[in-house]
TrEMBL record:
<feature type="active site" description="Charge relay system">
    <location>
        <position position="262"/>
    </location>
</feature>
<keyword id="KW-0560">Oxidoreductase</keyword>
<feature type="binding site">
    <location>
        <position position="260"/>
    </location>
    <ligand>
        <name>5-hydroxyisourate</name>
    </ligand>
</feature>
<feature type="binding site">
    <location>
        <position position="57"/>
    </location>
    <ligand>
        <name>urate</name>
    </ligand>
</feature>
<feature type="binding site">
    <location>
        <position position="185"/>
    </location>
    <ligand>
        <name>5-hydroxyisourate</name>
    </ligand>
</feature>
<feature type="binding site">
    <location>
        <position position="185"/>
    </location>
    <ligand>
        <name>urate</name>
    </ligand>
</feature>
<dbReference type="Pfam" id="PF01014">
    <property type="entry name" value="Uricase"/>
</dbReference>
<feature type="binding site">
    <location>
        <position position="168"/>
    </location>
    <ligand>
        <name>urate</name>
    </ligand>
</feature>
<feature type="binding site">
    <location>
        <position position="260"/>
    </location>
    <ligand>
        <name>O2</name>
    </ligand>
</feature>
<feature type="binding site">
    <location>
        <position position="234"/>
    </location>
    <ligand>
        <name>5-hydroxyisourate</name>
    </ligand>
</feature>
<comment type="pathway">
    <text>Purine metabolism; urate degradation; (S)-allantoin from urate: step 1/3.</text>
</comment>
<dbReference type="GO" id="GO:0019628">
    <property type="term" value="P:urate catabolic process"/>
</dbReference>
<feature type="active site" description="Charge relay system">
    <location>
        <position position="57"/>
    </location>
</feature>
<feature type="binding site">
    <location>
        <position position="57"/>
    </location>
    <ligand>
        <name>O2</name>
    </ligand>
</feature>
<feature type="binding site">
    <location>
        <position position="234"/>
    </location>
    <ligand>
        <name>urate</name>
    </ligand>
</feature>
<protein>
    <recommendedName>
        <fullName>Uricase</fullName>
        <ecNumber>1.7.3.3</ecNumber>
    </recommendedName>
</protein>
<dbReference type="InterPro" id="IPR002042">
    <property type="entry name" value="Uricase"/>
</dbReference>
Length: 306
Protein backbone atom coordinates (compact mmCIF):
# COMPACT_ATOMS: atom_id res chain seq x y z
CA UNK A 1 0.00 0.00 0.00
CA UNK A 2 1.29 3.41 -0.94
CA UNK A 3 1.95 5.91 1.77
CA UNK A 4 1.46 9.61 1.45
CA UNK A 5 3.71 12.35 2.71
CA UNK A 6 1.44 14.60 4.73
CA UNK A 7 1.97 18.01 6.27
CA UNK A 8 5.60 18.82 6.71
CA UNK A 9 7.65 21.84 7.68
CA UNK A 10 11.18 22.51 8.72
CA UNK A 11 13.52 25.24 9.82
CA UNK A 12 15.91 26.18 12.60
CA UNK A 13 14.31 26.41 16.01
CA UNK A 14 15.35 28.52 18.98
CA UNK A 15 17.95 30.81 17.50
CA UNK A 16 19.01 32.75 20.55
CA UNK A 17 19.98 36.23 19.58
CA UNK A 18 21.01 39.29 21.54
CA UNK A 19 21.23 42.50 19.53
CA UNK A 20 23.06 45.39 21.17
CA UNK A 21 22.55 48.95 19.97
CA UNK A 22 25.64 50.97 20.89
CA UNK A 23 24.70 54.22 19.23
CA UNK A 24 25.25 56.10 22.48
CA UNK A 25 26.56 55.22 25.93
CA UNK A 26 22.96 54.38 26.73
CA UNK A 27 22.91 50.99 25.04
CA UNK A 28 19.72 49.23 24.01
CA UNK A 29 19.37 45.46 23.91
CA UNK A 30 16.93 43.05 22.33
CA UNK A 31 17.01 39.45 23.54
CA UNK A 32 15.09 37.01 21.34
CA UNK A 33 14.54 33.33 20.78
CA UNK A 34 13.60 32.99 17.10
CA UNK A 35 12.20 29.84 15.51
CA UNK A 36 11.85 29.56 11.74
CA UNK A 37 9.57 27.04 10.06
CA UNK A 38 9.08 26.76 6.31
CA UNK A 39 6.41 24.99 4.28
CA UNK A 40 6.52 24.53 0.53
CA UNK A 41 7.67 22.33 -2.29
CA UNK A 42 9.64 19.83 -0.27
CA UNK A 43 8.31 16.54 -1.62
CA UNK A 44 11.58 15.66 -3.39
CA UNK A 45 13.64 16.33 -0.32
CA UNK A 46 11.60 13.76 1.56
CA UNK A 47 10.99 11.27 -1.24
CA UNK A 48 13.93 11.25 -3.64
CA UNK A 49 16.96 12.37 -1.73
CA UNK A 50 17.31 15.44 -3.95
CA UNK A 51 18.04 18.54 -1.94
CA UNK A 52 17.65 20.88 -4.91
CA UNK A 53 14.65 22.51 -3.22
CA UNK A 54 16.05 22.50 0.28
CA UNK A 55 17.07 25.78 1.85
CA UNK A 56 19.27 24.48 4.68
CA UNK A 57 18.14 25.17 8.23
CA UNK A 58 21.67 26.49 8.73
CA UNK A 59 20.94 29.22 6.18
CA UNK A 60 17.70 30.16 7.91
CA UNK A 61 19.70 30.53 11.11
CA UNK A 62 22.30 32.71 9.41
CA UNK A 63 19.54 34.86 7.92
CA UNK A 64 18.13 35.54 11.35
CA UNK A 65 21.48 36.78 12.64
CA UNK A 66 22.32 38.75 9.49
CA UNK A 67 18.90 40.45 9.48
CA UNK A 68 19.43 41.51 13.09
CA UNK A 69 22.41 43.50 11.86
CA UNK A 70 21.04 44.62 8.49
CA UNK A 71 17.51 45.59 9.51
CA UNK A 72 17.74 45.81 13.27
CA UNK A 73 15.04 44.64 15.66
CA UNK A 74 12.53 47.41 16.14
CA UNK A 75 10.03 44.91 17.53
CA UNK A 76 9.68 41.14 17.47
CA UNK A 77 6.69 41.49 15.18
CA UNK A 78 8.38 43.73 12.60
CA UNK A 79 11.47 41.50 12.65
CA UNK A 80 9.29 38.41 12.15
CA UNK A 81 7.46 40.00 9.23
CA UNK A 82 10.74 40.95 7.52
CA UNK A 83 12.06 37.40 7.92
CA UNK A 84 8.86 35.66 6.84
CA UNK A 85 8.57 37.82 3.72
CA UNK A 86 12.19 37.18 2.85
CA UNK A 87 11.94 33.39 3.00
CA UNK A 88 8.80 33.28 0.86
CA UNK A 89 9.55 36.08 -1.60
CA UNK A 90 13.29 35.66 -2.10
CA UNK A 91 13.95 31.93 -2.01
CA UNK A 92 14.79 30.46 -5.45
CA UNK A 93 12.00 29.14 -7.67
CA UNK A 94 9.35 30.01 -5.10
CA UNK A 95 9.86 26.72 -3.28
CA UNK A 96 8.95 28.28 0.06
CA UNK A 97 5.22 28.89 0.04
CA UNK A 98 4.71 29.84 3.64
CA UNK A 99 6.98 30.87 6.47
CA UNK A 100 6.20 30.89 10.16
CA UNK A 101 8.41 32.84 12.52
CA UNK A 102 7.91 32.35 16.23
CA UNK A 103 9.68 34.71 18.58
CA UNK A 104 9.98 34.82 22.33
CA UNK A 105 11.36 38.04 23.71
CA UNK A 106 13.00 38.28 27.11
CA UNK A 107 12.70 41.72 28.58
CA UNK A 108 15.54 43.38 30.44
CA UNK A 109 15.31 46.40 32.74
CA UNK A 110 18.10 48.84 33.40
CA UNK A 111 19.94 48.49 36.67
CA UNK A 112 19.27 51.58 38.71
CA UNK A 113 21.79 52.96 41.11
CA UNK A 114 21.86 56.07 43.25
CA UNK A 115 25.55 56.53 42.37
CA UNK A 116 26.21 59.48 40.07
CA UNK A 117 29.81 58.97 39.04
CA UNK A 118 31.11 59.61 35.52
CA UNK A 119 30.42 56.09 34.33
CA UNK A 120 26.78 56.62 34.88
CA UNK A 121 24.80 58.45 32.29
CA UNK A 122 21.96 59.67 34.41
CA UNK A 123 21.40 60.33 38.06
CA UNK A 124 20.36 56.77 38.62
CA UNK A 125 20.99 54.77 35.47
CA UNK A 126 23.85 52.64 34.23
CA UNK A 127 23.69 52.69 30.46
CA UNK A 128 25.02 49.21 29.89
CA UNK A 129 23.76 47.23 32.86
CA UNK A 130 20.53 45.28 32.76
CA UNK A 131 18.65 42.90 34.97
CA UNK A 132 16.36 40.29 33.44
CA UNK A 133 12.87 41.40 34.14
CA UNK A 134 11.72 38.40 36.12
CA UNK A 135 8.27 38.69 34.74
CA UNK A 136 6.73 37.62 31.51
CA UNK A 137 8.09 36.46 28.21
CA UNK A 138 6.74 38.31 25.21
CA UNK A 139 5.78 36.12 22.27
CA UNK A 140 4.85 36.54 18.64
CA UNK A 141 4.07 34.30 15.69
CA UNK A 142 4.15 35.68 12.16
CA UNK A 143 2.89 33.63 9.23
CA UNK A 144 3.25 34.80 5.63
CA UNK A 145 1.91 32.71 2.73
CA UNK A 146 2.96 34.97 -0.12
CA UNK A 147 -0.20 37.06 0.15
CA UNK A 148 -1.29 37.67 3.68
CA UNK A 149 0.60 38.31 6.87
CA UNK A 150 -0.93 37.08 10.11
CA UNK A 151 0.44 38.27 13.42
CA UNK A 152 -0.50 36.61 16.69
CA UNK A 153 1.35 38.13 19.62
CA UNK A 154 1.18 37.39 23.27
CA UNK A 155 2.88 36.82 26.54
CA UNK A 156 3.43 34.00 28.95
CA UNK A 157 4.40 33.60 32.58
CA UNK A 158 2.86 36.84 33.76
CA UNK A 159 2.03 35.97 37.36
CA UNK A 160 -0.69 37.92 39.10
CA UNK A 161 -2.59 37.66 42.34
CA UNK A 162 -5.61 39.26 44.00
CA UNK A 163 -5.58 38.71 47.75
CA UNK A 164 -9.30 39.50 47.98
CA UNK A 165 -12.32 40.38 45.79
CA UNK A 166 -12.64 36.78 44.67
CA UNK A 167 -15.44 34.36 45.53
CA UNK A 168 -16.44 30.94 44.23
CA UNK A 169 -19.75 29.39 45.25
CA UNK A 170 -23.06 28.20 43.84
CA UNK A 171 -21.44 25.50 41.74
CA UNK A 172 -22.76 22.01 40.95
CA UNK A 173 -22.52 19.63 43.89
CA UNK A 174 -22.56 15.86 43.65
CA UNK A 175 -21.41 12.98 45.82
CA UNK A 176 -17.78 13.73 45.00
CA UNK A 177 -17.88 17.38 45.95
CA UNK A 178 -15.69 18.34 48.86
CA UNK A 179 -14.80 21.91 47.85
CA UNK A 180 -15.98 24.46 50.37
CA UNK A 181 -17.71 27.52 49.02
CA UNK A 182 -15.43 30.54 49.17
CA UNK A 183 -16.58 34.08 49.87
CA UNK A 184 -13.15 35.61 50.12
CA UNK A 185 -10.35 33.71 48.48
CA UNK A 186 -7.03 34.37 46.82
CA UNK A 187 -7.17 34.46 43.04
CA UNK A 188 -3.79 33.86 41.43
CA UNK A 189 -2.81 32.86 37.93
CA UNK A 190 0.06 32.71 35.51
CA UNK A 191 -1.26 34.35 32.37
CA UNK A 192 -0.60 32.97 28.93
CA UNK A 193 -2.25 35.26 26.40
CA UNK A 194 -2.26 35.42 22.64
CA UNK A 195 -3.98 38.07 20.60
CA UNK A 196 -4.46 38.36 16.86
CA UNK A 197 -3.97 41.59 15.01
CA UNK A 198 -6.28 42.75 12.23
CA UNK A 199 -3.13 43.67 10.29
CA UNK A 200 -2.80 41.60 7.12
CA UNK A 201 0.19 43.14 5.37
CA UNK A 202 -1.67 44.55 2.38
CA UNK A 203 0.19 47.02 0.16
CA UNK A 204 0.23 50.40 1.83
CA UNK A 205 -1.21 49.09 5.10
CA UNK A 206 0.74 50.62 7.99
CA UNK A 207 2.03 48.27 10.66
CA UNK A 208 0.66 48.93 14.13
CA UNK A 209 3.13 50.24 16.66
CA UNK A 210 3.83 46.72 17.97
CA UNK A 211 5.73 47.71 21.09
CA UNK A 212 3.16 50.27 22.13
CA UNK A 213 0.33 47.88 21.41
CA UNK A 214 1.98 45.20 23.54
CA UNK A 215 2.31 47.54 26.49
CA UNK A 216 -1.33 48.61 26.22
CA UNK A 217 -2.72 45.09 25.80
CA UNK A 218 -0.69 43.97 28.81
CA UNK A 219 -1.88 46.94 30.85
CA UNK A 220 -5.54 46.38 29.98
CA UNK A 221 -5.32 42.72 30.97
CA UNK A 222 -3.69 43.62 34.27
CA UNK A 223 -6.21 46.37 34.96
CA UNK A 224 -9.13 44.07 34.18
CA UNK A 225 -7.66 41.39 36.44
CA UNK A 226 -7.23 43.88 39.27
CA UNK A 227 -10.56 45.67 38.86
CA UNK A 228 -12.87 42.72 38.32
CA UNK A 229 -14.68 41.52 41.42
CA UNK A 230 -14.51 37.87 40.53
CA UNK A 231 -17.01 35.06 41.03
CA UNK A 232 -14.86 32.68 38.99
CA UNK A 233 -11.63 32.72 37.05
CA UNK A 234 -13.76 32.12 33.96
CA UNK A 235 -15.49 35.44 34.58
CA UNK A 236 -12.14 37.17 35.07
CA UNK A 237 -10.88 35.64 31.81
CA UNK A 238 -13.83 37.10 29.94
CA UNK A 239 -13.30 40.50 31.56
CA UNK A 240 -9.63 40.51 30.54
CA UNK A 241 -10.33 39.61 26.92
CA UNK A 242 -13.20 42.07 26.65
CA UNK A 243 -11.14 44.88 28.12
CA UNK A 244 -8.49 44.40 25.44
CA UNK A 245 -11.01 44.34 22.57
CA UNK A 246 -12.82 47.41 23.94
CA UNK A 247 -9.62 49.42 24.07
CA UNK A 248 -7.39 48.17 21.27
CA UNK A 249 -8.92 48.49 17.80
CA UNK A 250 -5.92 46.78 16.21
CA UNK A 251 -6.70 43.50 18.03
CA UNK A 252 -9.68 41.34 17.01
CA UNK A 253 -9.24 38.12 19.00
CA UNK A 254 -7.79 37.27 22.41
CA UNK A 255 -7.07 33.80 23.74
CA UNK A 256 -6.23 33.27 27.39
CA UNK A 257 -4.92 30.28 29.30
CA UNK A 258 -5.23 30.84 33.02
CA UNK A 259 -4.10 28.19 35.48
CA UNK A 260 -5.90 28.65 38.77
CA UNK A 261 -3.00 28.67 41.19
CA UNK A 262 -4.78 27.37 44.23
CA UNK A 263 -4.11 28.82 47.65
CA UNK A 264 -5.45 26.67 50.43
CA UNK A 265 -6.12 28.01 53.90
CA UNK A 266 -3.92 26.25 56.41
CA UNK A 267 -5.67 24.75 59.42
CA UNK A 268 -4.10 26.49 62.41
CA UNK A 269 -6.56 25.07 64.97
CA UNK A 270 -4.07 22.41 66.13
CA UNK A 271 -1.89 25.29 67.32
CA UNK A 272 -4.74 27.06 69.02
CA UNK A 273 -4.71 29.77 66.34
CA UNK A 274 -7.50 31.16 64.22
CA UNK A 275 -6.80 31.51 60.50
CA UNK A 276 -8.69 34.58 59.40
CA UNK A 277 -7.83 34.26 55.70
CA UNK A 278 -4.24 35.10 56.44
CA UNK A 279 -2.15 31.94 56.05
CA UNK A 280 -2.30 29.86 52.88
CA UNK A 281 -0.56 26.89 51.39
CA UNK A 282 0.37 27.80 47.80
CA UNK A 283 0.03 24.61 45.78
CA UNK A 284 2.05 24.52 42.57
CA UNK A 285 0.07 21.57 41.21
CA UNK A 286 -2.43 20.30 40.38
CA UNK A 287 -4.21 23.39 39.16
CA UNK A 288 -7.50 24.25 37.55
CA UNK A 289 -6.94 25.29 33.96
CA UNK A 290 -9.30 27.90 32.58
CA UNK A 291 -9.01 28.67 28.87
CA UNK A 292 -11.05 30.72 26.48
CA UNK A 293 -11.22 32.99 23.45
CA UNK A 294 -12.93 36.37 23.26
CA UNK A 295 -13.30 37.79 19.76
CA UNK A 296 -15.16 40.49 17.91
CA UNK A 297 -18.51 39.54 16.47
CA UNK A 298 -18.14 38.50 12.85
CA UNK A 299 -14.46 37.68 13.23
CA UNK A 300 -13.67 34.00 12.69
CA UNK A 301 -11.33 33.03 15.52
CA UNK A 302 -8.05 31.55 14.32
CA UNK A 303 -5.78 31.39 17.34
CA UNK A 304 -5.10 27.67 17.77
CA UNK A 305 -6.30 26.01 20.94
CA UNK A 306 -3.19 24.76 22.68
O1 LIG B 1 -12.69 30.15 39.47
C1 LIG B 1 -12.87 28.93 39.59
N1 LIG B 1 -13.46 28.25 38.56
C2 LIG B 1 -13.68 26.92 38.61
O2 LIG B 1 -14.24 26.32 37.65
C3 LIG B 1 -13.29 26.23 39.76
N2 LIG B 1 -13.34 24.91 40.14
C4 LIG B 1 -12.77 24.83 41.38
O3 LIG B 1 -12.64 23.74 42.02
N3 LIG B 1 -12.37 26.06 41.80
C5 LIG B 1 -12.68 26.93 40.83
N4 LIG B 1 -12.48 28.28 40.71
Amino acid sequence: MAHVLGQNQYGKAENRIVRVYRDSTRHEIKDLNVSVSLQGDFEDVHLTGSNANCLPTDTTKNTVYAFAKEYGIESAEAFGITLARHFVDNTERGVVRSARIRIEEYVWDRIKTPDNSARFIGADEVGHSFVRNGQETRTTEVVYDGETVQVISGLKDLIVMNSTNSEFWGYIKDRYTTLQEAYDRILATQVTARWKYGFSGKDGEAQPNWNRSYQHVRRHMLEAFAETYSYSLQQTLHAMGTRVLNNRAEVDEVRLELPNKHHFLVDLEPFGLKNENEVYYAADRMYGLIEGTVHREGVVPVIPVA
